[in-house]
């Protein structure tokens, strides 16, 4: 199983379960993850959703070696259709799930890994957590779910995208992207305690509070910006496709091997 699911005491725990590849996201993992989110959303006994990951790292991002055509067969149309479903539609659905959600992040959270924690309402980070989106070095200007500006503010978002350098857990907390930083050994315990505290609240009140905040962001342009940035992102694929062999595949593969 690429994703594990457990529900108890009003808390659904969804676990990324590919630690051998730093929880890189193949298509099967994303499909299982979406099914787990849907299961939690539809369970009346669940009040809070926790997203966590097995192993040293939260997620090394997309596993582009999984079921992708060979470099000489990749087309922009194929990429657009595949990414629209699994990277944009899924992510927005998780963001709008009408129950509070918490991401527990440790180790590396790279590029597509941001698309897993950012849709969550709260983020608890281990002290060793590092958040990065280095894909500009590969000819692409950011991941498909462009939460960067909303999560980090415009200038910090540009710094992370322009340089590719990781953002530490402490820095992420200062920007407001992370709610709490805890020792690595206490990550699951602290996240569970926060979830238990929230689960004591009335479910309808939680739903309405989340709806109020999300709709405020949408009125400010969040949803439209995400949709627009997705199309901008696709021009990055077009740029990468213009380079023989589509080198992004090899570069990301090399990066993930270093994390294993």
From TrEMBL:
In this record, what's one Pfam family?
Answer: ECH_1
Q: InterPro entries recorded for this chain?
A: ClpP/crotonase-like_dom_sf (IPR029045), Enoyl-CoA_hydra/iso (IPR001753)
The record's SUPFAM superfamilies line, in alphabetical order, gives: ClpP/crotonase
- Output the superkingdom of the source species: Bacteria
Transmembrane domains' residue ranges: none
User: To which protein family does this belong?
Assistant: Belongs to the enoyl-CoA hydratase/isomerase family.
- NCBIfam families in alphabetical order: PRK08290.1
Q: What is the protein's given name?
A: Enoyl-CoA hydratase
